[in-house]
Amino acid sequence: MTTVCGISHLEPFIWYAHDTSVAVVQDSLIREAVAEERFTRVKHYAGYPAHALDYFSKTYELDFDTFDVVAIPWPEQPGAPSKLTNNENPATSLEVLKHRGKAPWKKVVRVDHQTAHAATAFRTSGWKDALIISLDGGGLDSGEPSSGGLFIAEDYEIERQELYGTEANFGVFYGAITEALGWAYADGEGKTMGLAPYGDASRAHRMLSEFIPTVVGTSLRSNKTVHCRFNICNGRFCVDFTDDPFFQAVQTLVSDVGRENVAAAAQKLLEDSLVSLVTNAVEQFGMRRICLSGGVFLNVKANKRIREALPSCELFIPPNPGDGGSALGAALEACFMETGTTPKSRMQTPYLGPEYSTEQIEAELRRPSGRLEFSLSPDVAKEAAKLVANGAVIGWFQGRSEWGPRALGNRSVIALPNSKAVKDRINNLLKQREWFLPFAPSIKEEEAPRYFRRFAESPFMIMSFDISPDREADLAGVIHVDRTVRPHTLSRDDNPRYYSLLSEVESLTNIPAVLNTSFNKHGLPLVESPADAIQHLLWGCVDALVIDDFVAIRKKSTV
């Protein structure tokens, strides 16, 4: 058996990296995957993944000596410095490992960055042949800076057809606009997307169109280039656009025409460009199975446009298409390179992170002495459904944590989906986020076609759909202003306990869905441990916590 460990953020130029992650693959079987941010509690953490590696070592006995191969989603640059957060400066990432006292591994395999993104999607799709497109903010491939690539996979072999340079960069274009709107690059792009439906794209379209890459067939041509500087600031990935003329022009444009109109133009330009690129690639290569990866494809509205533009094609986007997911892509690609094995079926579960025993959870519930009341429930799904049906906002913490940025029913906050009032309560209690951002539902997969037009399976909450007009009342709390919804569709086999919760809610309300948002306070990563979840309950972020077989509430203050 060959064990491959994929690790992001061992790149020679470490200031490119963010969302440090670790994934373990054994003979093409995906065993574990987790982001370092879940342990450090620093969102998008950029640094050495010490906690994730220690977790695998202690919990699953996957020690350094047991890894046959370590895969890194970045090619080596001989002589290039590796900038570490504690100012150490060894010459290569292999020396970083030795410098930190880790045992040398049998073999280190480096995978080009865009190839790792491509493998993240293709090698979890279950397909033998596919067209693959990767787009992000930046990487390194074959010694060349990149912002994406086009690949063809045939008989499980991935071959690059086009490499997109950083001068024609959709990720930096959209990220610069996000920064100019007042949010953070590689974090706030979802806010730009959420604000866009409130604006008029024509108000800022002409100016922004001068900077977005032009699609020419399956190639990208740069227009006016957007410049920025990447760095790591206290474990966080940060970008400096202050000297860039485009950034300054967008700030002025925001003052002139309004944030919503700039967001609308950016979103329309991105959608139109991506539809053209993918459509041209399908026509050129004649393939009807398409894999999309890279952080750009976290944009669910663009994914919707692509899917609707190509109704005869099948589309697959993995649950973690961004840089965090590249650890798994590198591991899967290295496994194929070393052993010739690759997954032959679609990724069945996103639940690849840590889990905790009933004993561990009970011990944590007892720690805040006198501040909690909790009990063991004979049927937590039924009890949780009653709370939800009565209007409560609950934290739902079960099993292994999800791989990727979306809460998919194991680290989720749950409420009724038909209540705009509950939506406002969640924003006040937990999120403290912008008023215009929508929430999402989890819905039973077999019921979803009744609720969404032109429906397709969406188990990773990475696609949006138009709501069916006759079902709007049931999902009033999760419908965006443009009448779209970003659902998480769930079958019984995907997550039996969470599916039982949806069934119990349906029996009480006749709605086969719940509002599902990520279990985290504003600015923090998803909760990972029982202690994280309990702290959110003590903070008052949720009315109750359903954790394993326990139901916990805060004790009322006697003061």
Question: How do the helices and strands line up, and which of them pair or pack?
Answer:
Layout: E1 3-7, E2 21-26, E3 29-35, H1 37-40, H2 50-60, E4 69-72, H3 93-99, E5 108-110, H4 113-122, E6 130-141, E7 144-154, E8 157-164, H5 170-180, H6 189-195, H7 205-209, E9 214-216, E10 219-221, E11 229-233, E12 236-240, H8 245-257, H9 259-285, E13 289-293, H10 300-309, E14 314-316, H11 326-339, H12 358-366, E15 372-376, H13 380-389, E16 394-397, E17 411-415, H14 420-431, E18 440-444, H15 448-451, E19 465-466, E20 484-485, E21 488-490, H16 496-509, E22 513-518, H17 530-538, E23 544-547, E24 550-554
Parallel strand pairs: 1-4, 4-5, 6-13, 13-14, 16-23, 18-21
Antiparallel strand pairs: 1-2, 2-3, 6-7, 7-8, 9-10, 11-12, 15-24, 16-17, 17-22, 18-22, 19-20, 23-24
Low-pLDDT residue intervals, each spanning 5 or more residues: 79-96
* Proportion of residues in β-strands: 15-25%
The number of helices is 17
The overall pLDDT average reads 90
Largest sheet: 8 strands, mixed
Oligomer: single chain
Give the class from helix and strand content and strand pairing: alpha/beta
Relevant CATH superfamily of the largest domain:
Carbamoyltransferase, C-terminal domain
Radius of gyration: 23 Å
Shape by Cα distribution: globular
How many individual domains? 3
Q: Compute the number of strand runs.
A: 24
Portion in helices: 25-40%
Largest sheet, order of strands side by side? 15-24-23-16-17-22-18-21
Name of the CATH first level of the largest domain: Alpha Beta
Q: Enter the CATH topology name of the largest domain.
A: DHBP synthase
CATH architecture designation of the largest domain: Alpha-Beta Complex
Alpha-carbon distance between the two ends: 61 Å
